[in-house]
Amino acid sequence: MSKSSEPRILAEARLGSLDRNMDAMEAEMRRLIRAQGEGPTHARWRGAASERFCRQVLDALDCFPEVLPEPLDAADVRKIIEAELQSIERLRLRRDRLHRLAEHADAVLAAAGGNVMETTMEAYMLLARANRARGITVLSGWDDLLP
Asked: What is the pTM assigned to this prediction?
């Protein structure tokens, strides 16, 4: 354990900034959920399979527009469904970005945890060498690092 080791503490200002941004994102997601209304009672979005189904129905309506009741026409239905599909795709891209951000958060946790474990193990080894580590339970897998 070197005397020049500086603690790598995550600054409260940085964590606060993350919290504020996540609070804003969470609030916006709640607004998006409310904007969708109650939601369907029996239909559920299933990703690519659902999109494929929507496009097949649109193609069929282009071929058989007479099945639609007045005042609907195939062009109107296509416009509505295509707009919804585009919205879903834009939201999916953002969801994927959130997943990547969660992976980055996992990496930060692992790095910060690794840093604290290195320092703690160095301190523990000093205690062990001085015969002062009795009662401390060493994590499994770390036994081979001990003196």
From this structure: 0.72
Longest dimension (CA), the chain: 89
Hey, what are 11's tokens? Answer: 């600054």
- pLDDT above 80 (res 50): yes
- Taking the C-alpha atoms of residue 14 and residue 142, their distance in angstroms, rounded to an integer, is 32
Is 91 or 141 the better-scoring residue by pLDDT? Answer: 91
Query: If you ran DSSP here, which 8-state letter would residue 79 be given?
Result: H
Q: Is the pLDDT of residue 44 over 80?
A: yes
Asked whether the bond before 40 is cis by omega within 30 degrees of 0, the reply is no
In DSSP notation, 14-78 reads: HHHHHHHHHHHHHHHHHHHHHHTTT--SS----THHHHHHHHHHHHHHHH-GGGSPTT--HHHHH
What's the mean pLDDT when you consider all of the chain?
Answer: 88
How many helices (H) and strands (E) would you count in the chain? 3, 0
